[in-house]
């Protein structure tokens, strides 16, 4: 197990370094000068030059990459060009919205998907199965921003149960959770639909395996065999999908963040890109790469926990 | 059944209506803004979103813009101008303090103006201070500004958000902890969500009637609509979803407010490039444009046609739309006269709706007279670098939102490249003129000059189409500068 973990950690660090080079270079070739963006249509060449000097944009490329990398290792991401505050704080604030939202949505989707998938597999081709999978099909087909708008119209504009968006901060945890509820539901529904279908099909595959027939022959009921033997084996593809979904929920919630005007990471990245606040963009992207790599790592560990063969390095 | 439902709703509404008067009058307001300011220091960034939060509320200058664009005294209670127009002696209000308790003195004015015009200044509107030769504090309440040449716009220039007075101690931290002299002081900024201001209890002038003002940043049109409908926001001075304004207007809780702005929306042409350096080609393009179709199609009917680069609500405005009336036949004649055939031009479009939607309509209208266009959609940063910075474009659609910015036509190195000597001569004469009637006549001549030379095709003045709660009073209707002046705002009973 130790060798397995060590190997994965080395891979992680190498991926991060490669990602940092790619991110830096891509943003270097992007057209658009942050100083010109900040000073607008009436700016003088003199003021522009002064601002570039102040922001450190006149230094050579390699020096700026080096400064960024060494700063990051120390946890110092630099000062945002436009916001004029440390990037680390800016990202930390946004993570306090995006991370709980992603966890909330993933929890909801898992709580819906696992029982629905189990029920559907247990009643294969029965009325419950057909109904659940029909709903899941609709859930996958619905664009989540449309569903989000529908939620706002019903629960904010109509019933006034929730505010239509915004985030009050964690000083009042109840209000904060309430503010994240509609976005989490909007994010969770399509994910739950996908997860339930994966859960169902991988359970059905497992149910056809020899060990399930053996278990049934030993005298277990169909449900007992499903829970004790098939479920554990069916979890690997489900965990894979959950890992992918978590990365998506963290990085890809920008549309939902827009609908609910939540101050999350996605909106920060979007605003920073349009303002050419490159120092923020590359740090946000780097954080997201880091998050995806960590999640992948955790998923690998989870595989190993579920499947002993992987722990010993066998295929 | 449906009747039963609406009956329940109606009686609920009645109960709510009956209980409402008992509730205390509101003293807070939530203002919806489309863009979040990058930071809160108006003296180092061009972003209009900064002024939309801080102008007149938090920071004040020597003078200020009134609701209709007139210039009012602010920190300066009065001033004397020498007969040669070169010396301005400002007397500051007594008892003005900054939000940190420090007293405002003439030294702060000297510091602010010197900082804005210094060599290493990063002020986005440095030209406002270009004519200043010296700023001297005579005593604590008297500042004398000497100009290198007379400038009839000087008091106007000092009203801009970029010319507000800041203290030396807080100038460096105003971006995140703004310290001004205004009737509101800064409380919190939840980045990405909202900025909150609270009433300044020790304000030198008439105190604000609101105790608290929250600016929420909502850029998504659907989210803005939902926020209004759910009454999470009390007003959107500039509403991002004009297509839903009629729905909100029909709702008895809300009213729409349509005013004018300083935004001249133009089809800018690169006067340096062939064949656009030929006045006949530019005139042809101007005649190809049907302004009302663009206003209806791109702006849902909100906007006023213009024939020159000047705001129609200004007393000096001259209606020159007739010079470039929609006339495709005339446009085709001019093109063949100029010997131009099969013309193909690039059309660069920045992100705002007026440009993206308007650009498509303009492209169709140009095709109608035989000009093909290649539409290139650009982000703001790209547009600023490529079109504005490097003048690498043929045509572009852009709204110039700075007040009284006809001056840009005098700059030879400006992106559309005009700067004709006769325009510059008129502009210089304007700066030497203090008599209001003569100034208006000269402003008229400037407008005629650029219109008759078809420098750009002038399309429409951007409207300020907003929506607000019917009980909210005192908001600006027009936008003489991009600001949300809350100093006179209150809730009606």
TrEMBL record, chain A:
Pfam families: BPD_transp_1 (PF00528), BPD_transp_1_N (PF19300). GO terms for molecular function: dipeptide transmembrane transporter activity. The keyword Cell cycle does not apply. GO terms for cellular component: plasma membrane. Keywords: Cell membrane, Membrane, Transmembrane, Transmembrane helix, Transport. It comes from the Bacteria. This is ABC transporter permease.
TrEMBL record, chain B:
InterPro entries: Peptide/Ni-bd, SBP_5, SBP_5_dom. GO terms for cellular component: ATP-binding cassette (ABC) transporter complex; outer membrane-bounded periplasmic space. Residues 71-398 form the Solute-binding protein family domain. It is found in: Periplasm. Its main location: periplasm. Residues 1-26 form the signal peptide. GO terms for biological process: peptide transport. It comes from the Bacteria. SUPFAM superfamilies: Periplasmic binding protein-like II (SSF53850). One of its GO terms (molecular function) is peptide transmembrane transporter activity. Belongs to the bacterial solute-binding protein 5 family. This is ABC transporter substrate-binding protein. It comes from Pelagibacterium lacus.
